[in-house]
From TrEMBL, chain A:
<feature type="compositionally biased region" description="Polar residues">
    <location>
        <begin position="215"/>
        <end position="224"/>
    </location>
</feature>
<keyword id="KW-0808">Transferase</keyword>
<comment type="similarity">
    <text>Belongs to the ATG10 family.</text>
</comment>
<keyword id="KW-0072">Autophagy</keyword>
<comment type="function">
    <text>E2-like enzyme involved in autophagy. Acts as an E2-like enzyme that catalyzes the conjugation of ATG12 to ATG5. ATG12 conjugation to ATG5 is required for autophagy. Likely serves as an ATG5-recognition molecule. Not involved in ATG12 conjugation to ATG3. Plays a role in adenovirus-mediated cell lysis.</text>
</comment>
<dbReference type="Pfam" id="PF03987">
    <property type="entry name" value="Autophagy_act_C"/>
</dbReference>
<dbReference type="GO" id="GO:0032446">
    <property type="term" value="P:protein modification by small protein conjugation"/>
</dbReference>
<feature type="compositionally biased region" description="Basic and acidic residues">
    <location>
        <begin position="225"/>
        <end position="234"/>
    </location>
</feature>
<dbReference type="InterPro" id="IPR007135">
    <property type="entry name" value="Atg3/Atg10"/>
</dbReference>
From TrEMBL, chain B:
<dbReference type="Pfam" id="PF04110">
    <property type="entry name" value="APG12"/>
</dbReference>
<keyword id="KW-0007">Acetylation</keyword>
<dbReference type="GO" id="GO:0061723">
    <property type="term" value="P:glycophagy"/>
</dbReference>
<keyword id="KW-1017">Isopeptide bond</keyword>
<keyword id="KW-0833">Ubl conjugation pathway</keyword>
<keyword id="KW-0472">Membrane</keyword>
<protein>
    <recommendedName>
        <fullName>Ubiquitin-like protein ATG12</fullName>
    </recommendedName>
</protein>
<dbReference type="GO" id="GO:0000421">
    <property type="term" value="C:autophagosome membrane"/>
</dbReference>
<comment type="function">
    <text>Ubiquitin-like protein involved in autophagic vesicle formation.</text>
</comment>
Length: 234, 140
């Protein structure tokens, strides 16, 4: 099996499957969608956010609701049921969609995303910029057209924003090299998404980190080793 | 293990038992200039008797990232990852546009708003939280 920073479609799907397993455990809302001919697919999640920045979804995207404990609420609650934590009379709800696809040309995962108001109006790139976390603004603003671009979704054929993948392998290498000394079962997708997600409003609950570490020398870790072995045989 | 000189990120630890040296003592390098953000302020007032306001963090460099001469820090629980990132970047004199990531379990980057106190509860052991940090360019 290809190691380290580059991997094939099958490995990508394996990591996504493991990731989604944990997502289901904690109700984080990620799903796998296969393409029409099922040869490939992607991982996706939708969440809703009030435009003034208060997250009202139940996927733990807001820092102050993000905890170590599993989420109990179901994904995509009906709008009637959402609780607005602040009184915002002119608040607008924005729907964010995040898709994780595999890039054959770069041999790394790629984060596609789009945002729209509930009436279907898409958010402009400028609004996306405003949503970028402070941490990343400086870097992204230096060359926004290098880092977030608009492209056609390879499977859906609709316009999405994309975090450019050309540096992915570069920044994943030191992390993987370092972590694989301790734990061979590091989930590339978990690690990668934890790093790039926050830049576009996607925060992973902490329990993903623990899920990965539980595979260290643990009995349960054998399952993924077995899965990996069978992948290697392909 | 031989403790490296401990420095205080925020306020001087008054009741923290392991602080044998005065908190304001500088590490063997030049005293880090604290960022003007709320992340770091040289010690002034410290509530006496609040033993658990701060947690110990051990910072480890990954890859080619410069190694901090002072690796062990006492940090207020409410400090966010973003605050810590800003601090390390200033300490290492990185330019603002360079990206720095912090990891728990060596592979997972907590979101920037995560508080270190929470991370300590989840991932700390032996009385400290080990965080790895790595300089990189995530995009472009």
């Amino acid at each position: 099996m290809e190691e380290d920073e580059f991997f094939g479609e099958k490995t990508f799907q394996h990591y996504c499957a493991e990731f989604i397993k944990h997502s289901q455990k904690i109700g984080d809302g990620w799903e796998w969608r296969a393409s029409k001919d099922c040869s490939d697919g992607y991982m996706c999640k939708t969440h809703f956010q009030v435009k003034n920045g208060t997250a009202m979804s139940h996927q733990g995207t807001s820092a102050h609701v993000q905890t170590f404990l599993p989420m109990e609420e179901a994904v995509d609650p009906p709008l009637d049921d959402f609780e607005v934590t602040e009184t915002t009379t002119a608040a607008e709800v924005i729907k964010y969609e995040y898709h994780v696809l595999y890039s054959c040309s770069y041999q790394v995962p790629v984060l596609y995303f789009r945002a729209s108001f509930l009436d279907g109006r898409p958010l402009a790139l400028k609004d996306i910029w405003e949503g970028v976390h402070e941490c990343y603004k400086m870097r992204l603003l230096q060359g926004p057209w290098d880092t977030i671009t608009q492209q056609e979704h390879p499977i859906l054929g609709q316009p999405f924003f994309v975090l450019h993948p050309c540096k992915t392998s570069e920044f994943m290498i030191p992390v993987l090299k370092n972590s694989q000394k301790i734990n061979r079962n590091v989930n590339y997708i978990t690690s990668w998404l934890s790093m790039v997600g926050p830049a576009v409003g996607l925060n992973l609950p902490l329990s993903y980190a623990t899920a990965a570490s539980q595979e260290e020398g643990n009995v349960s870790g054998q399952d993924s080793s077995i899965e990996r072995k069978s992948l290697e045989e392909h | 293990m031989a403790e490296e000189q401990e420095s205080t990120l925020l306020l001087p630890p008054s009741a923290a038992p392991e602080a044998e040296v005065p908190a304001e003592v500088s590490p063997e390098t030049a005293t880090p200039e604290p960022p003007s953000s709320a992340a770091v302020s040289p010690g002034t007032e410290e509530p006496v008797g609040d033993t658990k306001k701060k947690i110990d963090i051990l910072l480890k460099a990954v890859g080619d990232t410069p190694i901090m001469k002072t690796k062990k820090w006492a940090v207020e629980r409410t400090r966010t990852i973003q605050g810590l990132i800003d601090f390390i970047k200033k300490f290492l004199k990185l330019v603002a546009s360079e990206q720095l990531f912090i990891y728990v379990n060596q592979s997972f980057a907590p979101s920037p708003d995560q508080e270190v106190g929470t991370l300590y509860e989840c991932f700390g052991s032996d009385g400290k939280l080990v965080l790895h940090y790595c300089k990189s360019q995530a995009w472009g």
